[in-house]
Design a protein that fits this description.
By secondary structure, the chain is mostly beta strands. Helices cover 14% and strands 51% of the residues.
Length: 190
């Protein structure tokens, strides 16, 4: 791939976190593939955040007139995500760069995927369905990327990457609802 920039020599272009689409375009074109650009990621912070809550597995429906006991056992496979929407297959080179920077700064390996597990017994009322939801804990690494192409420098600030935090076991929630609709009841497990 040959990329030609038409800016005058010494041009500096800045994209902040509010310009996520522009950041994504630049990263995909210049850092995620084997381009002639030099890319550097500098971590600025590492925090723990909750991933998006989502249903894990199928619901169990007790359509009978009797109470039922049911064991829910589920596995939630969580992968990396980021502020610039670059897939793991597309971002191989970029993710290697980020991993090396995070390992050097925080002295731990970056986890690109993890499976959280939960098993619990549920007492299910008649005409009720139950299911498990998870909002897994993620490690959010935020940083700045500097890209040099020829005599042009592009600065991307506030780019973040979320990776599974395997020292936790997810934020599991038992959800229940009447099969006729109505409010969803939540029981936080941990």
């Amino acid at each position: 791939m040959v990329i030609n920039l038409l800016e005058p020599a010494g041009t500096v272009i800045n994209y902040n976190s509010a310009q996520a689409q522009q950041q994504a375009d630049v990263l995909k074109q210049l850092c995620a593939v084997d381009a002639t650009a030099t890319c550097a990621f500098t971590p600025t912070s590492e925090t723990t955040v909750d991933g998006p809550q989502h249903q894990v597995g199928d619901a169990f429906t007790n359509a009978s007139s009797l109470e039922a006991d049911y064991t829910l056992t589920e596995k939630d496979t969580v992968d990396i995500s980021d502020s610039v929407d670059i897939s793991a297959t597309l971002g191989g080179k970029l993710f290697d760069l980020v991993d090396a920077s995070l390992t050097a700064t925080y002295h731990h390996e970056w986890t690109t995927g993890h499976e959280f597990e939960e098993s619990m017994d549920a007492h299910v009322r008649p005409m009720t369905k139950v299911w498990l939801a998870d909002a897994p804990q993620m490690t959010r690494d935020t940083g700045n990327t500097t890209i040099t192409v020829g005599n042009t420098t592009i600065n991307l600030t506030g780019v973040y990457f979320d990776s599974p935090a395997p020292t936790f076991n997810g934020n599991w929630i038992l959800m229940s609802q009447s099969i006729n609709g109505g409010p969803i009841h939540r029981t936080v497990l941990h």
